[in-house]
């Protein structure tokens, strides 16, 4: 496949999509970016319209095919509701002659042994991945896909979700179990860099589920970093992942929101077996091929606190 220059981003205004789009737009020597958005979208984009065109279109296959005509690659960063729609998006991409479709994955990887509670949520993702694999296999090299497992989107999650153990506004912590369970995470900037890397070296990484990481850490390391950066001890409450799991399941049974986050954090920090925690070993990560840096925990924590 020839070098990728023209890139269409779908879901560009979302949590992950904003970061990816900014990184692509910041590299005008490498990429021409077009944003694809739904007619009913309330997303707004701050890029100059003459530099980053926005195509507002229905997500039917014919309309998307027309919108994607002339693009070299599609990067999908659609949220959960848009995941199944990626089959139509891939059909349109293939019909428009687009050679690479980067799936909206940014999860924990297909081999992750998630809690059974997530089976139903994970199913559409698996279907879309199978669809991409089949399409690539039948395309005689004309169509390829990539997906990137990032583990925990760590800087965003630490800032947004005190359930993860750190209330960065009120500077207090909740440590689950012993706080020593290790996990890896990828910053929003790291995720964007990984996508840039996929676009730049697509021939080497096509049709693969890549795994990346910015940091490896545990709650105790993070607490030490937060205390070091803020210059004082944080009040600590102790809890268990068993309790968190139970609270999440009770919320789910009552039809309340928030259960997904409780269960994600419980499975991330669950101690002992490394069964569900996500640790992408440094020597197994695809960082190097994607040109993606490893970051240090104190530096990441400092940036989080400066943005609070
Ligand atoms: N590993 C983790 O813990 C983690 C955490 C967060 C996200 N993620 C993953 O990252 C990806 C992006 O998530 P996000 O949180 O950034 O997404 P998001 O902010 O919820 O949504 C991103 C965009 O998706 C588009 N969209 C929404 N509903 C749609 C629909 N029904 N059909 C088509 N498009 C739709 C919208 O774009 P327009 O309005 O422009 O059309 C929206 O701005 C997902 O795969 C998500 O599962 C993983």
Explain the overall architecture.
The chain is α/β, with parallel strands linked by helices. It contains twelve helices and twelve strands. The strands form three sheets. The chain has a seven-stranded parallel sheet with strand order 3-2-1-4-5-6-10, sandwiched between helices. Strands 7-8-12 form a three-stranded mixed sheet. α4 links the parallel β5 and β6 (144-149). α1 packs across α6 (188-200), α5 crosses α12 (297-307) and α9 (241-253) runs antiparallel to α10 (259-269). NADP nicotinamide-adenine-dinucleotide phosphate is lined by residues 11-17, 37-38, 41, 43, 59, 77-82, 85, 104-107, 150, 152-153. This is NmrA-like domain-containing protein. InterPro entries: NAD(P)-bd_dom_sf (IPR036291), NmrA-like (IPR008030), NmrA/Isoflavone_reductase-like (IPR051609), PCBER-like (IPR045312).
In brief:
InterPro entries: NAD(P)-bd_dom_sf (IPR036291), NmrA-like (IPR008030), NmrA/Isoflavone_reductase-like (IPR051609), PCBER-like (IPR045312). The protein is α/β, with parallel strands linked by helices and 308 residues long.
